[in-house]
Amino acid sequence: MNRQGLDLFVVKTPINPEELPLETLTTLINPTFGEQLEALGKNIFLKIGAYNSMERIAYRAVGMNYTRVKFIGEQSPFYLTIMVNNYTEFPPFTEAPRQYIYLQDTTDLYWVLTYLDKQLQQFTNNLQEQRDENNENE
Predict the structure, then answer these.
(1) Residue 1: pLDDT over 50
(2) CA end-to-end span of the chain
(3) Does the residue 138 lie in any domain?
(4) Which residue range(s) make up the domain with 76?
(5) Which pLDDT tens digit goes with each residue over 75-111?
(6) How many structural domains comprise the chain?
(7) Global pTM?
(8) Is residue 117 a part of any domain in this protein?
(9) pLDDT value at position 26?
(10) Ramachandran area for residue 63 (φ above 0: left; ψ -120 to 50: alpha; else beta)
(11) How far apart are CA 101 and CA 86, in angstroms?
């Protein structure tokens, strides 16, 4: 476990995420957390298969800010609960259908969800290309 009061994303100027490819977005990740964030996306993809969408619900409980994210894919949904509480921590990934992470602030929350959305789209595109190639070879 790595618990630190560091920003996960180093974004110093306003950037339109719609115009930002995943490769560029990856360069904005604090190197301390890059591998953990990439692994989180891979593990979500392994659980959900081809990615369809993401649903988000933000709420407060006992003075804490939470965002519950449901990743929807061709297999089963996966739930990620993100707690915003002034430090960043990625607990070990488990086989459970739900995972918790802790983020420094809402800016990191925004960019983590943007990153995961783009990463899962890329994984899904790669999977579809493999399927298309396999169909052509049959």
Answers:
(1) no
(2) 45
(3) no
(4) 46-132
(5) 999 999 999 988 899 888 777 778 999 999 998 999 9
(6) 1
(7) 0.85
(8) yes
(9) 83
(10) left
(11) 12
Asked if residue 115 is part of any domain, the answer here is: yes
Q: Which amino acid is at 38?
A: E
Task: Tell me the C-alpha distance between 15 and 115, whole Å.
Answer: 13
Whether residue 125 is contained in a domain is answered as yes
Task: Copy the structure tokens of residue 105.
Answer: 């602030």
Predicted confidence at residue 54, as pLDDT, reads: 98
Residue 32 corresponds to which tokens in the numbers above? 């301390």
Beta bridge partners of 89: 102
Task: Report the alpha-carbon distance of residue 8 to residue 35 in Å, rounded.
Answer: 12
Judge contact between 59 and 82, C-beta under 8 A.
no
Is the CB of residue 17 less than 8 Å from the CB of residue 102?
no
* Token duo for residue 59: 């709420």
Return the structure tokens found at 69: 């994210």
Helical segments of 2-105, H only: 22-27, 34-48
* Burial class of 83 by CB neighbour count within 10 A (0 to 12, 13 to 18, 19+): middle
